[in-house]
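Translate structure to sequence.
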């Protein structure tokens, strides 16, 4: 699993939630106290389970979470654009990438958007995924 900005942010948020949940148990219990009190043991178990679930969900749905956060910003940019001569609006933003790969967020207001199965340049593969109404992630991996 690659470490990137979104994954790091997810990990920090998840650890903060776990810390807040653990700090709710005052004073800090010893292991003997936790094993003797089923409510505290249950609280720690739930906190650990939530931490794992939130972290895994953040890694799995990082594009969807990021898109939900930045969608209003991109919609604002789109409202300021003038349509082209054909009356369509198409715009792309850098989403993420690295050496040999790039993913862009693309807005295309065409009524029927077909998946572009064209091969990438010189053996590169292309990926296409819909995120929302007229928004797509297009990736090229070399």
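Result:
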């Amino acid at each position: 699993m690659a470490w990137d900005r979104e994954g790091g942010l997810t990990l920090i948020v998840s650890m903060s939630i776990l810390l807040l949940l653990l700090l709710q148990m005052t004073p800090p219990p010893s292991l003997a106290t936790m094993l003797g009190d089923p409510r505290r043991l249950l609280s720690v178990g739930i906190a650990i389970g939530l931490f794992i679930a939130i972290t895994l969900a953040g890694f799995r749905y990082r594009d969807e979470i990021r898109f939900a956060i930045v969608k209003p910003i991109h919609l604002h940019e789109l409202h300021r654009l003038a349509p082209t001569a054909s009356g369509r609006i198409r715009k792309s933003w850098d989403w993420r990438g690295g050496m040999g790969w790039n993913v862009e967020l693309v807005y295309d207001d065409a009524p029927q958007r077909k998946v572009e199965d064209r091969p990438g340049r010189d053996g590169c593969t292309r990926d296409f995924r819909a995120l929302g109404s007229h928004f797509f992630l297009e990736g090229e991996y070399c």
